[in-house]
Amino acid sequence: MDTPDLLVYLVFLILIAGMGIFFKMYPKFPALEKRQIEPFANAAVAPFQPKCTQRNADAQVLLRLFPPCPDESKAPTEDATDRAELSLILNKLTCLDADVNSNGVKGYNTMSLQYNTSHDQEPLANFVGRCLNNGIRQRDIDLLMEKFEKRGKALITQIAKRQGIDGKSALETYETLIKTTINTLNTNCLAKRSSLDTPYGPRDPGYAVPYSVSTLAPF
User: Fold this and answer.
1) Each residue of 102-130: pLDDT tens digit?
2) Domain check: are 58 and 32 in the same one?
3) Are residues 11 and 94 in the same domain?
4) What is the pLDDT of residues 139-150, one digit of tens each?
5) Per the CB 3.0–4.6 Å rule, which of 56, 98, 109, 193 could disulfide with 50?
6) Does residue 20 sit in the same domain as residue 121?
7) Alpha helix (H) ranges present in the chain?
8) Are residues 20 and 108 in the same domain?
């Protein structure tokens, strides 16, 4: 056998031996084992909740009095659940105020706040959308805020009773927050929008058709 042929034969044997060793050792490579795991970058988590309470002093006072409990157990206590719901209500009231005041220019903060049947009349993002499109009446505001007010006061009373403190001042602070939000809704949601292309009523001159075009034939 010539020398070139011998070299080709040896290279071929080395390649076969290398492939055999690779496939035999394949499960022992740690980098290759990771490829068998589903390639999720990180665990799925809930969307980030905006901290609208930072823009309101009354909400900050209530959060300092009744801070949410850290989630250390899989089965939270009744007190921890009440504190979490109160924090959510405070966030919703302040985010509702922020979205309506900004006319939705910066997006809806209320979009990422979870719906809760204990205190929600409807999804807040829907309410903000109807408000900014002049689709809200006084009755809608009354129903929405009445539910927030009753549920918030009930939670404050329960948490204060467990702590053994007088919740009168906290209730007064919460009432101030409710009044602030109601004032924002009444000012922005019930205001008449400009209607330059729509007449105000049947007697508005906008419905009149000029004589010069009233007898024009169709195309």
Assistant:
1) 887 777 888 888 888 888 888 888 898 88
2) no
3) no
4) 999 999 999 999
5) 109
6) no
7) 3-25, 30-33, 57-65, 78-101, 124-132, 138-163, 168-189, 211-214
8) no
